[in-house]
């Protein structure tokens, strides 16, 4: 197939550029320097046969996959589970959650030889791909080897559909190799069919993020953290911020402090390489700053507290009064708002929520979410919610109601995986490419 040959050639030609970018990120976050051999399929053979393999790109996708992984592990107790990620944050999250209960490596780059080496070592009997990670060589190779592919929690925004551009024919052929596609919503299903998914092998299962379990001890842990700052202080969180949003958050907090001098900003940047820069930025503007790593709990005199750890965002939400979920003031597409919704927090997002538009729309319609156009509006809404706690509580209650109403996706996805494991891939050959 000409498109695949051109794509593979392009991938090989771009490999030096990819490695350069990897090294560049490593200058800010040293974990990117490690385990490069895994990215080409080189790792000690674990001698696994017939594994259940699940792929989740980064920490956000791992968190979304947890209810599904837990459900599958409870159902297939005697199977070996392989979990792959792409980023160090995703890798650390897998290690923290599952440790030696699963075999974890990075997913190799989408080069035919690298994919073959990976599959030769983990020998999966099914591949469960979270969200919409369509890697053509991976899909073609799995299909040719008779490894069924289930795309779980699959989503595709209008923007992403248009973004395939000249590689749409290749993406179409790749997604057709999926044994089953479990879409998050009807609009996602429609767009996935437009891309090329087989209508007969597609279902609308819902979003597994709604099946997230809130640990029963979380409220008490949040109260402990909050007590170290001063339990009566108003606290807002800027969660999963990106570089282009940081000045907006700083300026918003200045306005909040003008109205509520004892207010605290709890700040959790999206990427670990931004932890230090955000801390320095806060100090440049004269804020009294602490962070989770150095201060553990914090102090009453702090004006900003940087959440510079991984896997604690749910705890930080529990310790907050108002939640701003970032990646939405700039055209990133937003981040998962359901963690804050599950805890009944009033939600603020920016105008760019195209990656989570269905969820944001549900919350918006129920009165559980407020949209802001920019940093100035962010400050106005935070101040307003602090000044009117009854309104804030009503918005948070509405958000929690949406979260509680929309569960059940994990059971529906597991039923599809059961069926696929029973019947095998449709139209797959057994010869290795």
> Main sheet: which strands, in order across?
3-2-1-4-5-6-7
* Helical proportion, percent range: 40-55%
DSSP, total strands? 14
Determine the structural class based on helices, strands and strand pairing. Answer: alpha/beta
Low-confidence stretches: 427-433
Present the secondary structure layout:
Layout: H1 2-28, E1 51-55, H2 59-75, E2 81-85, H3 88-98, E3 103-106, H4 112-122, E4 124-130, H5 136-144, E5 149-154, H6 158-163, H7 168-175, E6 180-183, H8 186-195, E7 202-204, H9 218-229, E8 235-241, H10 246-259, E9 264-269, H11 275-284, E10 289-291, H12 292-295, E11 304-306, H13 313-318, E12 322-325, H14 338-342, E13 347-349, H15 357-365, E14 369-371, H16 375-387, H17 389-405, H18 409-423
Describe this structure as you would to a colleague.
The protein is α/β, with parallel strands linked by helices and 433 residues long. The chain has two domains: 221 residues, Rossmann fold (3-Layer(aba) Sandwich), CATH 3.40.50; 188 residues, Rossmann fold (3-Layer(aba) Sandwich), CATH 3.40.50.2000. β4, α5 and β5 form a beta-alpha-beta unit. The longest helix is centred in the first third of the chain and has 27 residues. The C terminus is likely disordered.
Short description:
By secondary structure, this protein is α/β, with parallel strands linked by helices. It has 18 helices and 14 strands.
């Amino acid at each position: 197939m000409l498109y695949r040959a051109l794509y593979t050639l392009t991938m090989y030609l771009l490999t030096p550029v990819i490695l350069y970018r990897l090294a560049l990120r490593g200058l800010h976050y040293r974990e990117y320097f490690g385990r490069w051999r895994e990215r080409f399929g080189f790792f000690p053979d674990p001698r696994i046969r017939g594994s259940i393999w699940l792929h989740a790109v980064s920490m956000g996708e791992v968190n979304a996959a947890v209810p599904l992984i837990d459900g599958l592990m409870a159902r297939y107790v005697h199977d070996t589970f392989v979990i792959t990620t792409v980023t160090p944050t995703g890798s650390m999250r897998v290690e923290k959650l599952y440790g030696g209960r699963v075999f974890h490596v990075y997913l190799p780059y989408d080069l035919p030889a690298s994919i073959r080496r990976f599959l030769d070592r983990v020998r999966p009997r099914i591949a469960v791909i979270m969200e919409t990670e369509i890697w053509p060589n991976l899909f073609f190779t799995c299909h040719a080897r008779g490894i069924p592919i289930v795309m779980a929690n699959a989503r595709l925004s209008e923007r992403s559909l248009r973004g395939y551009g000249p590689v749409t024919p290749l993406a179409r052929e790749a997604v057709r190799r999926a044994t089953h596609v479990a879409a998050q919503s009807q609009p996602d299903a429609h767009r996935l069919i437009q891309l090329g998914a087989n209508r007969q092998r597609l279902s609308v299962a819902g979003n597994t993020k709604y099946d997230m379990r809130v640990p029963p001890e979380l409220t008490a842990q949040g109260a402990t953290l909050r007590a170290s700052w001063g339990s009566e202080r108003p606290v807002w969180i800027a969660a999963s911020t990106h570089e282009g949003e940081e000045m907006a958050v700083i300026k918003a907090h200045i306005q909040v402090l003008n109205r509520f001098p004892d207010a605290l900003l709890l700040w959790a940047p999206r990427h670990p390489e931004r932890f230090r820069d955000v801390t320095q930025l806060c100090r440049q503007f004269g804020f009294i700053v602490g962070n989770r790593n150095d201060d553990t709990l914090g102090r009453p005199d702090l004006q900003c507290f940087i959440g510079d750890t991984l896997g604690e965002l749910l705890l930080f939400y529990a310790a907050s009064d108002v939640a701003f979920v970032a990646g939405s003031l700039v055209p990133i597409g937003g981040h998962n708002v359901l963690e804050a919704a599950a805890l009944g927090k009033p939600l603020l997002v920016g105008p760019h929520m195209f990656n989570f538009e269905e969820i944001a729309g549900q919350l918006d319609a129920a009165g559980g979410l407020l949209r802001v156009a920019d940093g100035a509006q962010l400050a106005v809404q935070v101040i307003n919610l602090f000044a009117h706690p009854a309104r804030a509580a009503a918005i948070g209650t509405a958000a929690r109601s949406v979260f509680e109403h929309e569960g059940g996706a994990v059971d529906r996805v597991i039923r599809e995986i059961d069926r696929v494991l029973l019947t095998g891939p449709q139209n797959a050959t057994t010869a290795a490419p």
